[in-house]
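Attaching the record inline, Q. Sequence:
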Amino acid sequence: MKTQQNLRGIGRRAAVGAIALAAAGFALAQQPAGAPVRIGSTLALTGPLSATAQIHKLVGEIYVEQLNQRGGLLGRPVEWVVKDDQSKPDLARTLYEQLVTADKVDLLMGPYATGAILSAMGVAQRYNKVLVHHTLGIPSLAKYDMQFPAWSIGSDPATTVPNTLFDALAASPKPPKTVAVVTSKFPSIQFMSAGAREVIKKRGLTEVLFLEWDFGNRDFGPIANRVKDAKPDFVWVGAIGLEGNLLLDAMKKIDYSPPQHFYLYPAPGPLLASPDAKNALSATIFEAQPPFIANKGAAEFVKIYSERAAKAGFPDTSVETQAAASYTAWQILEAGVVATKSLDDKAIGTWLKANKVDTLQGKLRFDGTGNFGDDLMRIKQIQGGKWVVVWPKEVTSGGAKMIVP
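Structure, as predicted:
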């Protein structure tokens, strides 16, 4: 009898404990079981895009771990099959073919960078697979009906993003009058820089220099000299990955510092760590500061990412555009599976087009041109050793304003 009473007491305490945990907001997820749900993708783990792709790898690992902690997908554990596309779009195409045909993954996740995404998109279309992607820079090229962007740049970023930047500059204490545009020929970068040139012209600003370099270039000395000779008030740098750092290094060697400078798609950590990048501007969809931190999953992810990034030796351990877009992509894919209670690509794609998804960036829609929604790009600046959002005013924290030399 005493043993039975003890057991009943233990049972009551366990029940009370479970209720307390639930009240505190802890999910009592059932352990996932059965055959894993396999999600396949590639990333540029080597090659010129690897510095930024490492961010996406870490984010994917964190998200899959979180998924499995809360019961996986459809009660099954999740396995991420990721392959190295070496920063080569053609290789990405081959590897996505392998993922679908040989590895027989259940779902796809997009790779890093526009060229690889377009290659993956062609494969996804051939096999009628949903493709959620996080870094496509030319929305007009996204013709496939079941592709979904996690990077909220809108359907016409070549117009909207430069306008957001120059709105911010116009509101600053010292608006520029002359602009130098130097850019990589990397497709999405070249596309955005061409749009910036049109915006510059329409705003009555003077373009004093336009230069392009081939993707993969490492000699930025001649470009630095041309920028210095042009004496611009503002430099638009269409850089991707470490290109911005290489240009700054070249400028330092000739004792030149640009008065105001913007970097389109930099490797955020390395640029932040550069002593020559003081007051540099860039674009962002998320920063680890109010009001962004209140969005779905943001606070927990920011904490975990910071810890893991520090252990991995990342120069910047904060969550910004790259990490946020990557996390959002996983949120979108999970939402589609959970809502449809299936791994059926057609069902997931249909649901995503008809519904908003609550994400790290806020509620996203996929009913616009090319399945794109709103342009949520903001302008940030390196201030005091960290990235700070400075425009528009409603998403700045603590009244932050652009610093102008």
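Residues 154 and 375 are 4 Å apart (CA to CA). The chain is about 40% helix and 20% strand.

More tomorrow.
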